[in-house]
Amino acid sequence: MPPMEPRDADVRPFTAPVRRHLAGAALAGAGALVLASAGPAGAEDRQTDGGSALPVLHPDEDWSRMLARSPRVQLVPGAVYTLAAPVHLPDGARIQGNGAVLTTADTTSGALVVDGARDVTISDVRCLGEGAGSADPGRIDVPFARDHVAVRIDRSSNVRVLDCDLIGWRGAGIVLTGSTEDDYFSYGNHIAGCRFARCYLGLSAADRAEFSQLERCFFTACRLAVWQSAGNWTLSGCIMVGCHGSYYSIAASSPYGEADSDNWNHGTLVGCTMNHANSGAKETWSAHLEMPIGG
User: Fold this and answer.
1) Is 28 helix (H, G, I), strand (E, B) or coil?
2) Rounded (5°) CA angle 132-137-139
3) 16-68: per-residue pLDDT in tens?
4) Helices H, strands E: what count in the chain?
5) Are the CB atoms for 196 and 204 separated by under 8 Å?
6) Sheet strand arrangement including 157-162
7) How far does Cα 196 stand from its chain's mean position?
8) What are the boundaries of each domain within the chain?
9) What is the pLDDT along the chain (295 residues), one digit of tens a residue?
10) Strand, coil or helix: what is 138?
11) Residue 51 DSSP symbol
């Protein structure tokens, strides 16, 4: 009988629990398979199970060099990666976080940038803007810092940010921008299963970064959860609670928009919960509430 095809690169060379998706007996079985195929010490950095696992990017390695060799990498579970400058992800990049922490050296720059790329996936990364070593990272009532962004996506298509934490960003957790020079009907970006907390702005979509999805995400203690001025987004199954503002879709662009106009007020919002915008929650913004207008 011919050997079975290896499964997707989700097979990890680490025996730490896989966050969010596997539990109980299923996890125990997966752990046994990984242990059986791990091989000699050191081999786990490159391959297991017939070579299907992703190369491991260690905290002390150069991101640009590693991504030039292999755009698909995984991070060390629980490790902390501190970036001195933003990392640009190429076409086809995959960052499989395994629960690792990604942070910046200060609040003057961002973390990950997808600029004019396609088919990029970022999953299971804890993006912590401030206080990466504390039990409750991030702060509220802080001034807006435009460049302090966890994931910035510009004129890119089929970018997926899945099951990530975006906490403590003084600019935004995720920023998406587009251009009328592109076929923006085909952007098709997808944000799902993420947690946004203590961000000045959770997610911003502007400058015709259209026809994309935000689903099953949780927002709390943000100055504003979502500003969607790009048009034609579908939001579903999201919870926005304890944020000073929940959802803006108005004839004005977010601080990240640069175009004179946008596709105002187009989109779908279904099955979302928006509660306690200004009171009731233990953490509510009371300072630095001014929101710059883009465009």
Assistant:
1) helix
2) 130
3) 433 343 333 333 333 333 333 333 333 345 433 333 599 999 999 999 999 99
4) 2, 24
5) no
6) 56-57, 72-75, 94-96, 118-123, 157-162, 190-192, 212-215, 233-236, 267-270
7) 9
8) 1-53, 57-275
9) 444 444 444 434 443 433 343 333 333 333 333 333 333 333 345 433 333 599 999 999 999 999 999 999 999 999 999 999 999 999 999 999 999 999 999 999 999 999 999 999 999 999 999 999 888 899 999 999 999 999 999 999 999 999 999 999 999 999 999 999 999 899 999 999 999 999 999 999 999 999 999 999 999 999 999 999 998 999 999 999 999 999 998 888 899 998 887 777 788 999 999 998 877 888 999 999 998 888 6
10) coil
11) G
Condensed to tens digits (0 to 9), the pLDDT of residues 211-227 reads: 999 999 999 999 999 99
Q: How many C-beta atoms surround the C-beta of residue 70 within 10 A?
A: 13
Specify whether the CB–CB gap between 20 and 124 falls below 8 A: yes
What is the Cα–Cα distance from 18 to 37, expressed in whole angstroms? 17
First to last CA, the chain: 62
Task: Rounding to the nearest 10 degrees, give the CA dihedral for residues 39, 43, 49, 52.
Answer: 180
Look up the CATH architecture of domain 57-275: 3 Solenoid (2.160)
Spatial distance between the Cα atoms of 30 and 21, rounded to a whole number of angstroms: 12
Residue tagged 């970018």 (tokens): 159
Per-residue 3-state assignment (H helix, E strand, C coil) for 157-221:
EEEEEECCEEECCCCEEEEEECCCCCCHHHCCCEEECCEEECCCEEEEEECCCCCEEEECCEEEC
Structure tokens belonging to residue 96: 């499989």
CA–CA distances in Å: residue 112 to residues 120, 125, 143, 153: 11, 11, 21, 9
